[in-house]
Amino acid sequence: LISFVLTFSTALVLSASLSRYIVAQMMLRDATVSAEFLNSVVQVENASGYFLNSGNADAEQDIEELLIHVGRLPDVFRANVYARDGMILWSSDEEMIGKSFPDNEELAGAMRGELDPELNVVDRGAKDEHVGFPEGIVEFIEYYIPIHAANGSAVVGAVEVYKAPETLLTSIRRVRTYAWLGALAAAAVLFGGLAVVVTYAS
């Protein structure tokens, strides 16, 4: 019994770790593509001043192209553009514009240049910025994209993206399912082999 428990426990732990790693890499790849694209638009349009001047009207024309692309990112149901000071300069939900959310660790990480996508299940009201989500959204990917200055050095702002890419989410579910099934199958084979060895040895 002890060997059975140890075998299956080890397989399940390894499966969970492998599944978590694969899912994280899939989301990071998706986030990296979006980050590279949006930062290229900022550099081409020389739009970093918009973030530093908190949406100053003089910089509006520089940011127009970026806002168009943000609003058209595939599978995005909400996007927020943050100034360096953390205020929302633009949002696909107009009610969010001008707001800020103190103690936002994900935003603080983006301002340090970090890109860390998260897979979330909607818990309406759990976070202030999660209000007003469209009905039917159950699972989504959220990440903050650091926006760099035109020279590619300092972070001048961030773009928060909420995505519900059904193809990617389906792939993530399959990875998890296959990982668990593989772990159970491997554990069963290993335990069966050990049982045979013990039987013959005795």
Characterise the protein shown here.
- This protein has 202 residues and is α+β, with helices and mostly antiparallel strands.
- It has helices at residues 2-45, 48-52, 60-71, 105-111, 166-201; strands spanning 76-82, 88-91, 118-121, 139-148, 155-163.
- The chain has a 5-stranded antiparallel beta sheet.
- Helix 1 runs antiparallel to helix 3 and helix 1 (2-45) runs antiparallel to helix 5 (166-201).
- The radius of gyration is 22 Å and the shape is elongated.
- The mean pLDDT is 78.
Write the layout of secondary structure elements.
Elements: H1 2-45, H2 48-52, H3 60-71, E1 76-82, E2 88-91, H4 105-111, E3 118-121, E4 139-148, E5 155-163, H5 166-201
Antiparallel strand pairs: 1-2, 1-5, 3-4, 4-5
Features:
202 residues; alpha+beta; 5-stranded antiparallel beta sheet; 5 strands
Question: End-to-end distance, in Å?
Answer: 17 Å
Q: Helix count? A: 5
Ranges with pLDDT <50 over ≥5 residues? none
**Total strand segments:** 5
Mean pLDDT, to the nearest integer, reads 78
Largest sheet: 5 strands, antiparallel
Strand content: 15-25%
- Tell me roughly what share of residues is in helical segments: 40-55%
Strands in their spatial order, largest beta sheet: 2-1-5-4-3
Overall geometry: elongated
